């Protein structure tokens, strides 16, 4: 009897972690069916392709745990990318050094990126506007503002070192000959260049650094605890002395910050700023959070789950490209995974809600 | 033991309206050190609303609150908690997605330094302290790591009570604390009320169980339609008289004044 229960418990907790198996199965499947899918280069491509979804989903996790949703992030990415690129171009044209122009662009985008979150937070917390409505309004405002700033055309002609940053890797390894940090070994022959192994894209490193910091905040700090408490029972949090309004404003600003960071990463990767950059990723980000175990009713969710959720989508996308399957199939697949995630959640209430 | 000189808490002419409805109407009330006051009244009389004004959940439309003789502004629940006013609400208000000890420490989490500089939650400390307070109350909960949503009504009540006890209440408000409990648990809660009051903690207890209230309260305040209509020393009244006052078959002491 007890053995039976134990087996049941193990079985249930395995189901609860289904996304890890799903992710592993996905990698195995494409590694067998695809060509060179399971290679360092391709796995790093998956990480790179997942950049926007990873960042948006991490910020969105905080919002969804409080029981809200942030739809504005889709276009905050574009707004931030346009501001970032435009500041870089204008400052360089004004005669500033590349380093100064680039860092000003990045800082300007990240600071401006907090603004939509502040407004969203104020509307939701102080004026009791439903999150769906407040952030949907901001979605339009961010898009329009971005188009005004860039005059309806993508921002091009960025400082040349943007590319070396955005396309750079943390380490370069020429087996047996050289191992360098941040820049390629010098004086490589064409053959050597072909053999050069690039390890960890800069963009991925920054992405995971930001995610890591906020995963820590959510899991370990008072701020994280209050985020869960508000999602579980706002009244309880309020009566326990939590300043719920302030907290919600901060949460929407975190989401907005991640969206603007995604905008900056977009500029580094594609050397341009575009108003609709990343807007198509909004749905993927929300799906990643839900696959990752967060409930849209609030109260549950983890950054690790969200990251796996985002990587499931990224691995699928690259896998379909690898198999030369048209990518619109991705949307069908993502939709199916979302429904699967919700079904697993529905039919396993006891295991989802047991202990920490 | 009961020092009648200066009330620890005094509310004066408190009024609270919800739109056109006056839930609490010009209420006066005093609670002296070490005293247990039973706050009685029919459903909708305004008892919960009054105590929510005292605990900072609602802002009164008029009136003043004095604590130890000084006027205090209780603008939000944290300000009440800081003064030492702990409240067990009728609707409990626990975060169901958090575990037992996280709820006991909610809003007042114990932190420790991580790597010497970042403050993180000290789960072990909160777990052990919660264990102590639950043991002290002889409350049994399967595991303090269990989420609230897995607990029964009585267990939840126990958690809510432990939370307010843990924080060294200077003043305790209990809104129907025995409503969800079985007979044995009810008795435990009443024993606890007596114990706390013997330690000098004044308590306001709201309950429909007149028998319980008579067994613990020193004084009774009776409300009807938002107004205080009578006040009695428990030893000098009877349940029959109190029921009459609650439902209105007996006239209240202040009825004349109110009608003029
Ligand atoms: N948040 C609220 N909004 C509107 N009306 C309320 C609210 N809370 C209580 N009331 C009303 O105020 C009156 C007093 O309620 P309450 O204080 O809960 O009474 P009691 O606790 O004595 O049963 C009732 O008529 C109730 O419907
Ligand atoms: Mg009530």
Write the layout of secondary structure elements.
The complex is a heterodimer of chains A (356) and B (260).
Chain A: H1 2-16, H2 18-33, H3 40-49, H4 51-65, H5 73-93, H6 98-112, H7 114-125, H8 131-149, H9 161-166, E1 169-174, E2 178-181, H10 190-195, E3 197-201, H11 202-220, H12 222-232, H13 234-239, H14 244-270, H15 281-291, H16 303-322, H17 328-346, H18 349-352
Antiparallel strand pairs in A: 1-2, 1-3
Chain B: E1 9-18, E2 21-31, E3 36-40, H1 47-54, E4 62-67, E5 70-72, H2 77-83, E6 85-88, H3 100-104, E7 111-114, E8 118-121, H4 123-136, H5 153-166, E9 171-175, H6 183-198, E10 203-206, H7 210-216, E11 219-224, E12 227-233, H8 239-247, H9 255-259
Parallel strand pairs in B: 3-10, 3-11, 6-9, 9-10
Antiparallel strand pairs in B: 1-2, 1-4, 4-5, 7-8, 11-12
Helix pairs in contact in B: 4-5
Strand runs of chain B, count? 12
| Unreliable residue runs of chain A | 351-356
Ligand types: adenosine-5'-diphosphate, magnesium ion
By DSSP, the count of extended strands of chain A is 3
Task: Let me know the largest β-sheet of chain A.
Answer: 3 strands, antiparallel
| CATH homologous superfamily placement of the domain at 9-94 and 169-259 in chain B | P-loop containing nucleotide triphosphate hydrolases
